[in-house]
Amino acid sequence: MDGDRRGAAGGARGFGFGWLAMLSAVGSGWSAILYGTILHPNGISWRVLYLAAVPVLTLVALLRRRLPESGRRLGQRPVRAQAGLLIQAGGGLSRAVLVLALGPLAGAVLIATRFPQTGGRELEAIAADLTSPDAT
User: Fold this and answer.
1) pLDDT per position as a tens digit, 36-59
2) Domain range for 2
3) Hey, which of 36, 40, 58, 96 would disulfide with 90, CB 3.0 to 4.6 Å?
4) What is the pTM of this model?
5) DSSP state of 133
6) How many CB atoms lie within 10 A of CB 131?
7) Which of 58, 75, 92 finishes a domain?
8) Which residues contact 2 (CB under 8 A, 6 or more apart)?
9) Which of 2-6, 85-89, 103-107 has the lowest mean pLDDT?
10) In terms of domains, do 63 and 81 share one?
């Protein structure tokens, strides 16, 4: 019955989710190894790990293109209608994306203004301040 509800794409969808889960685990392990053996001993910031994720994200994007949508997802017309209304009300797709991006941007501004003591400092220095006996 479950196969009937999901349609023919159910097997491909499970395969895709399996790959995503595997890549998540591999990415976490690879990042830990890369940081512990190369970046930290050489004094390189952990932010370089964002670049290490680019090949994996490219693979995920390629997998997503090959994975067809299920009939259930294609039947979600109200969600598409709401997205269409947001795009029309915003004056286009770029403005709708701007509206949706304001939430995380507001969060970043809030953190930068309310917690300036972390600005420009490395994670190791912040964590050392939190774990030192003088911090209590």
Assistant:
1) 999 889 988 888 888 877 887 888
2) 1-75
3) 96
4) 0.39
5) G
6) 8
7) 75
8) 10
9) 2-6
10) no
